[in-house]
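Here we describe the complex-level prediction in full. Unlike the single-chain runs in Section 2.1, the two entities below were treated as one system.
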Amino acid sequence: MKKSNTEMTLDYDRRLMFDIERIREDFPILRTIVRGKPLVYLDNAATTQKPLHVIDADQRYYHSQNANIHRGVHYLSEVATFEYEKARGKVKNFLNAADNHEIIFVRGATEAINLVAHGYGRKFIGEGDEVVISAMEHHSNIVPWQMICQERKAVLRVIPMNDNGELIMEEYEKLLSPKTKIVSVVLVSNSLGTINPVREMVARAHALNIPVLVDGAQAVSHINIDVRELDCDFFAFSGHKVFAPTGVGVLYGKAEWLERMDPYQTGGDMIESVTFEKTTFNTLPYKFEAGTGNIAGVVGLGSAIDYLRRVGIDSIEAYEHELLEYGTALLTSIDGIRLIGTAKEKAGILSFTLDNIHPHDIGTILDQEGIAIRTGHHCTQPVMKRFGIPATARASLALYNTKEELDALARGIQKVKEIFHL
Amino acid sequence: MSSINELYQQLILEHNKSPRNFRTLEDATKSVEGYNPLCGDHYTVFLKINQGRIEDVTFQGTGCAISKASASMMTSSIKGVTVEEAETLFQKFRAVVTRKLDDETDLEALGYLGALAGVAEYPARIKCASLAWHAMHTALHEMNDSEKTVVTSDTTE
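The structure predicted for the assembly as a whole is:
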């Protein structure tokens, strides 16, 4: 088959080197001046900025492709449906899933996890059963399981971690038993940066026929994902953390599980036939996509994936690793800094405390220098408790960050110390 | 003075480092928790009220420099005054941190409250400064004696 123009451009671009100047130009917001200083955006774990490629796709969709999908016989509906389903194919390839119908579009990782907690939990978790999560989960991978455990009279078990923020594998193995009905674990921790040995964890769970959900929200923009290689049963991520618009996300699920699960929400588009007596549900993936979804968001996610593949996820991973090492050395050289999260395997997160200065105060002072970081508990209160701190300051990296920006962060931290007379 | 230096001025830093009345009050007649779930600032304000007068006031807890200094200043300001006078101070405090003062107001003359005026430039931090004040306000007006309640930042500005 003849390649489309876009695909040919991508092939050509892939041969280019990782060119940071050029990448920065793709993100117009990075030119923002904050309080007279150039923006240093280091809050990528909260949300990433969007490249022109994605902004254009969003605009193009509403400019010339908008209609409702899967139900119109008219031209625009066909165009919109085509674009929407094309994006599904891109996600399938991005995750290396076996089939398009294993890709469910949702609002974000949170909704994806809720979908599994309800769809799987209500069917397969019963009284006295156990759900295993880890000590470094985001609240979105704690609360849905807590709720379903309450409802099903099941027990939530937690894999502990060591002082570096690494899961203790021996403890994990001890937690697994015939009572365990599902393991739900984060791939990259949003507050510590730890990359968990998920492939190994899946293998251990599968030895006891336990399915595993992987929360990939923080991983997809940093490391290469292959769901078949991980062999996970479910994989969740949010579009906005991978350069796509907000309000769109993905649940990947092995068809064998998705087929057996009941819909999480019901309504239009997810049905095959409805009478007042009985409803027959639609096939995968539509069974799980009730109502009109975020069509423009899905199209935007497709173009964000094109962008990522164009730059090359392996080059991004290598570049960010270099940045992380540089930033780690820089921050640890500052007196009073304590890095929270020092796992051997880490993605671009620098979570820290500075003497007794509250992270909120650090954040305000850095903001005066144009530096955007996140301060607080990062929706991981149990992690803060584990390290005996109320909050951290967190600088999180993306492919468009530079060593110069990390230097600016270090200068900003010196300024904080000056203001607090340290 | 630049606005960031005004925010973190000497008096604020000093109250953060050595907060006044920073202890629990065994014979308190009222105690209210103030909690900001967003950043985790968490204090309890203890009041001992006798015949309409605040005989003693203390606080305990953790949070950022702004919230702690402001709580410390709040206790220093209302200790010994009547409930009505405390209410007047509370209203004045709100006017200061939300810049609803007229231009003629002399910040120097406002004492502690003047030191908190820098917060007005930082909308995200007004909640920090307000936390203990709102806890105190709730304790004075919306609670019966020996009742315990929690004020969250959602109920503040």
